[in-house]
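Hi V.,

You were right to ask for the full record rather than a summary. Here it is.
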Amino acid sequence: MAPRPDPAPLMTLQQELAPIAPAKLAVEEVSKTFRTGKRVVHALDRVSLQVGEGEFVCLVGPSGCGKSTLLNIIAGLERPDAGRILSGGVPVGGPGRDRMVMFQEHALFPWLDVMDNLMFGLKLKPGLKDSERREVAMYYLNLVGLERFSTANIHELSGGMKQRIALARALAPNPKVLLMDEPFAALDALTREQLYGDIQRIWLERKKTIVFVTHNVREAACLGDRVVLFSPNPGRVQEEFRVDLPRPRDINSAELAAHSTKIMRALKGHLETTEEPAE
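Predicted structure:
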């Protein structure tokens, strides 16, 4: 009978809460095609992209340009038809605790309260006592400013609060990479603006590598160190823009507006060149 593997060594709470080194991402010649019945959708075509350790990169483009597909492939939720993803130099073959995803919908479990939603993923993390897992969960609730709502039911929360809880849940396992798929798209403008401040503050504190998908060019310029422009049919990287503005950034500032105008102009230009001629 084979010997049982040794249990994971216990970690101190300080070790668990300490910022960990972020991972570098490499997207190498990734292609993906979806086939449903007679329809064929070429979502990605030989996409290559490098994301530095601790870099905040925003992917921007119209619907159908493969942004979310690429995010799912990085997360390990989809497999590419060709090419590969490396996270910290290791090929991605499936989901992993080093890469957590925050979706457009909060995806919280309505039958669990706020604390139990955060504890759901933490229960699978080895090396911590249950009491320490609760302390970790409370730390991240405090980070998003919702520690007073730890026993609240999900239906009692506003849309913005639900997204803050979803962000805390994604951060709680202390991943090296945070993948965000249009997480603020369904929120009102005032709540979005508040969350722009939150995510910048948390990124500065925790230094995660973040890949953020959005349709909103100004949002991308506000959050990203770099904005990567995609074009559709099939999805390809067309252009990249570096946003060298100090943080925290104000989405209504004139400096940021100048960056977003430049990116929007380029996006419109690429869309015009990819449009099919009228018959």
